[in-house]
Amino acid sequence: MLHRLRRAEGQIRAVQRMIEEGEDCLKVSQQFMAVRKALDSTYLRMTMCLMEQEFGTCISEDPAERERMRSWLKDMESLLAGVG
Fold it and tell me: What InterPro entries would the database entry show (predicted)?
């Protein structure tokens, strides 16, 4: 998670430099889009982590049930990743 945030931070700094240097707006916009995607992806992973932690405390200790829930969470992650 921190690696992804550091990468996004580097991209944001690059956008700042581009603006300071008067870079073409289209190039700045493209870099903004890359930053946004990086942050969206990180947010999705954090949300899925939270859901896994919360659901983990609610479901039974049955290994089959836990695996079913993990599989469901992976499916949800795939669906949500396609929304952005």
Answer: Metal_Tscrpt_repr, Metal_Tscrpt_repr_sf
